[in-house]
Amino acid sequence: MKQYSKVTKAVIAAAGYGTRFLPATKNQPKEMLPIIDKPIIHYLVEEAVNSGIEEIILVTRAGNHIMEDYFDNRSELENELEKNGKLKYLEIVQSIPQMANFVYVRQKNHLPYGNGSPLLTVKELIDNDEAFVYMFGDDLTLSDVPVTKQLIDVYHEQHPAAVLAVQEVPWSEVERYGSVKYKENAPYKYTMERGYEKLPKDQAPSNKVQFGRFVFSYDVIEAAVNTATGKDGELWLIDILNGLVDAGKTVIAQPIEGEWLTTGDPLRYLKTTLKFAMQRDDLKDELKTFIKDEIMN
């Protein structure tokens, strides 16, 4: 029986332009926008590391060196913090480069746009017998057990070609996301029959939609290489996964235990910030009072 080794690598797609946040993203990637006191990308790395990941591969674009700087040491700041006795903050900033082994790779301009293109960028960095985590850089989660670990556990239990995270959303929002249809009478009840990108609610097969957490075998990279661009000339991940299903491979669309929160546009970014603030004992009570007062005024 084939032995499935530990999943130790995570690929984070962070090569977009963040146009919905302009001008804030003119000189920094959206993934560096703060959720309270840490950038979005930091939370993704934390989730991955807490799920057993040891190596983080960040797929970026030209001009995104700020992320590389963030996960590196900054001696001048560290010296200043030590000199002023701010040892708590010194410990925080010194711990960031030690979270994982970081690898940075630029997504080249000759590759098609799309949420599947980072897979082409990293194909030489993943062994052909290796599974890995794939994450969208603007999706966050709140859960007792990290969502990434939930998917890794399913991968090791079921041995599919791919596991994608899904969550139910209101039917009014289904058309914003990719929805899934499940295969009837499958050995595992969350086996995907088909995925559909941004269908109107009257055409969507379910209100379970995919978001940016996946565990992929190398089959997914091989399929990405052979998948043609689709709608709007983009390389869509859902087309890659549907191709695997058509080839007889198992793809699992796993509902998560927890909550997916997107930062993809200003309104949802603010909602996510509030959700995370409500997890903080040092913030939530005063914040609730402030919001209540604002509503009453």
Automatic annotation (TrEMBL):
A Pfam short name: NTP_transferase
Protein name: UTP--glucose-1-phosphate uridylyltransferase
Keyword Plastid: no
SUPFAM superfamilies: Nucleotide-diphospho-sugar transferases
One MF term in the entry's GO annotations: UTP:glucose-1-phosphate uridylyltransferase activity
Entry-linked InterPro entries: GalU_uridylyltTrfase_bac/arc, NTP_transferase_dom, Nucleotide-diphossugar_trans
Entry similarity comment: Belongs to the UDPGP type 2 family.
